[in-house]
Design goal:
binds uridine-5'-diphosphate, NAD, decarboxylase, UDP-glucuronate decarboxylase, Rossmann fold, lyase, 313 residues, alpha/beta, binds nicotinamide-adenine-dinucleotide, NAD(P)-bd_dom_sf
Length: 313
């Protein structure tokens, strides 16, 4: 990690991952500018930072130009859960694409390094397992998830074109399913849904037969990876960041139920269209290039997340 104080902008800084990243950057003494339009994030996520000399928050939509002077940009602004990104799909594409253009334009002007939050969704419903960065993916370009998947694929394209054409210093991080405290209760993602349902005494909604898989990374591990990646020179990526331990969604449901006394039963609901059947990152690149691997097992991360939900519900 750099010892010097840097001016660092985090777009989407009031969201789930962004707020944890702001916490870490502020703690390390950097001058942090959190930029957010509060579409899915909120000020509560960063209230512990408000009033600190090295933290600032700006309400701004990244689809519009922004002129600031910074050394590093973490471009995280984008709704991330299917119900949120499908609520206004056109705005999702604009955020991913126009947002990336504006932030890359800014990086180009001021000579900042830009880390783009990409996603495992660029692999779509993958036919290669586990997913390596060299796999080009299997995305339906016109389906209900395309606004997010194709938006993020285009953001990756823009990063590499600004890099090749304008020499912008880029980092493309393909983030796999991440969970932890501050995930919005109503965001529809599986970890937040199951915990909130179990705490309310409602049945856990399992989509399909629950045999589909995901690999869940605790947010502290992910934030460590993002910061290492940003500060590793000459590695553009893409680099997969996630926890390679794979679970079926049914196993996740049972694990959550085992941790919450008197948990209700599971009810089965239809599998959403284009829902990927399996997902597991190959993190060899992150290990060798960043010297990183996740440390928090799902069991421990779930305990912390459940404690957070108990404190706010
Ligand atoms: P989140 O919804 O909690 O955070 C996104 C933040 O971006 C919110 O604060 C939201 O208000 C803000 N935002 C949205 N549109 C904006 C706009 N036009 N202008 C300014 N701000 C805007 O989601 P998250 O889970 O923290 O995700 C953060 C980033 O990581 C996203 O880019 C997401 O695509 C990526 N990602 C997350 C995961 C995951 O599992 N959580 C997985 C892969 C990729
Ligand atoms: N941009 C921005 N902040 C800056 C510099 C650029 O928001 O500090 C925006 C600018 O409005 C433009 C986009 O980034 O729409 C892309 O910038 P670039 O310089 O690549 O393109 P151009 O301005 O030549 O269209
Ligand atoms: N899922 C589920 N019940 C829920 C929410 C999600 O069974 O209440 C499933 C969903 O169909 C998917 C997996 O859990 O197979 C992960 O869903 P999430 O929306 O968290 O992430 P993504 O599909 O984007 O990986």
């Amino acid at each position: 990690m750099p010892q010097k104080q840097l001016r660092i902008m985090v777009t989407g800084g009031a969201g789930f991952i962004g707020s944890h990243l702001c916490d870490r950057l502020v703690k390390e003494g950097h001058d942090v500018l959190c930029v957010d339009n509060f579409y899915t994030g909120n000020k509560r996520n960063v209230r512990q930072l408000m009033g600190l000399e090295n933290f600032e928050i700006l309400r701004h939509d990244v689809t519009f130009p922004l002129y600031v002077e910074v050394d590093q940009i973490y471009n995280l602004a984008c709704p991330a859960s299917p119900i949120h990104y499908q609520y206004d799909p056109v705005q999702t594409v604009k955020t991913a694409v126009h947002g990336a253009i504006n932030m890359l334009g800014l990086a180009k002007r001021v000579g900042a390094t830009l880390l783009q939050a990409s996603t495992s969704e660029v692999y779509g419903d993958p036919s290669q397992h586990p997913q390596v960065e060299a796999y080009w993916g299997n995305v339906n370009p016109i389906g209900p998830r395309a606004c997010y998947d194709e938006g993020k694929r285009c953001a990756e394209t823009l990063c590499f074109d600004y890099h090749r054409q304008h020499n912008v210093d880029i980092r493309v991080a393909r983030i796999f399913n991440t969970y932890g405290p501050r995930m919005a209760v109503d965001d529809g993602r599986v970890v937040s849904n199951f915990i909130a349902q179990a705490l309310r005494g409602e049945p856990l909604t399992l989509y399909g037969d629950g045999g589909q898989t995901r690999s869940f990374c605790f947010v502290d591990d992910l934030v460590e990876a993002l910061m290492r990646f940003m500060n590793t020179p000459d590695v553009t990526g893409p680099v997969n960041l996630g926890n390679p331990v794979e679970f079926t969604i049914k196993e996740l449901a049972e694990l959550v139920r085992s941790k919450i006394p008197n948990s209700p039963d599971i009810i089965y609901k239809p599998l959403p269209q284009d829902d990927p059947m399996q997902r597991q990152p190959d993190i060899s690149r992150a290990k060798s290039m960043l010297g990183w691997q996740p440390e928090v097992p799902l069991n421990d991360g779930l305990e912390k997340t459940i404690a957070y939900y108990k404190s706010i519900m």
